[in-house]
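Standup notes, protein team

Yesterday: finished cleaning the Ferirhizobium litorale set.
Today: Haloacid dehalogenase type II structure.
Blockers: none.

Input for Haloacid dehalogenase type II:
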Amino acid sequence: MFDLDPVPSIISFDCYGTLVQWREVLLAEFDELQTRTPGGIRVDSATLLDTFSCFSRQFERDRPHRLYKEVFRLSLKNALDQYGIGYSGGDFERVAESIKTMGPHPEVPGVLRKLRSRYKLAIFTNSDEDLIVHNVERLGVPTDYVITAERAQAYKPSRQIFEYAHKAMGVTKDETVHVAMSMILDMQACHELGFRGVWINRLGQAGNPDWLPYVELPDLTGVPKLLGIEGQAA
């Protein structure tokens, strides 16, 4: 049973992957990018996405802080170069612009509406101000706080972005619950900083017992019940 003592006042979420269809959109974009270079080297798009993500974490640690738009393009270029996949400058722009089109997973709007009946909602995201605004709008549910890496000048899993967020919202970590899909970027931080986490395991992956405690759910459908909200219309 999830511990609601102390009772949280804010439920925070990761955005990309947790709330919106990050993986689905990028896999489609990577497939299309490779289709546009007939006869060239082809790599499974899931493998390409994993490589892209590894480069992203590397560039996100750089100082001074890089905007995510730069991180994204550098990571994509390095991933494509690693496998010898051909590309043009226009490919970077097309894939990068796809971020703005990412809408919610099917269950997300209804879940957020239920949670708003009792809690304030926040998003902590490894993104820029002018990118995340498009995804928040596509959720179709008002969000009380949106904390970006650009504003905090740090990317998850750095404690800096979480501490910045809690200070900006005027709460302690004990007054929050964080809901996220990434074990590395989010559940690790929940464990190390000592606040409650809910892992959304959409891909059926193995968790990390070193970063317990966290509650595992396959998607957001069970979050309202977990947080004490049952039987209310979405």
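Follow-up from PR in the comments: Residues 86 and 214 are 41 Å apart (CA to CA).
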